[in-house]
Amino acid sequence: QVQLVESGGGLVQAGSSLTLSCAVSGRSFSTRSLAWYRQGPGPEREIVAAQSSGGNTNYVDSVKGRFTISRDNAKNILYLQMNNLQLEDTAIYYCYMYPSPGLPGSWGQGTRVTVTS
Q1: 104 — alpha (psi -120 to 50), left (phi > 0) or beta?
Q2: Rounded CA gap, 57 and 33, in Å?
Q3: pLDDT per residue over 17-56, tens digit each?
């Protein structure tokens, strides 16, 4: 059973930076695509950034140039470096491991990021 545990959230002022971490148990980390999602006040959980097992990355337009997704395959950790945080970045951030043949997708429990003016 894969487990994903996020950390690094907090309360920060606009313009600040935070780095989120997602520690993943299990032996398939390096072969899986991973992503960060967030859920703000609205009902929808939106994808923020994703990284394939090969290292290709994609970002939602609103965070391009400010957020960076990366991974450490030796430590089984996924990161999200967030710079120049804005009020609209306030959300609960979730780590997600995409499914692969024979293996289901998995979510972490989330870490809250609150940006104040």
Answers
A1: beta
A2: 10
A3: 999 999 999 878 989 999 999 999 888 999 999 999 999 9
57-85 residue pLDDT tens = 999 999 999 999 999 999 999 999 999 99
**For residue 61, which phi and psi values (nearest 5 degrees)?**
-55, -35
d(CA 8, CA 111): 7
What are the percentages of helix, strand and coil residues in the chain, rounded to 5? 10, 50, 40
Q: What contacts 54, CB < 8 A, 6 or more positions away? A: none
**Rounded to whole angstroms, what are the CA distances from 47 to 36, 56, 94, 102?**
6, 15, 9, 24
How many angstroms separate the CA atoms of 51 and 48, rounded? 11
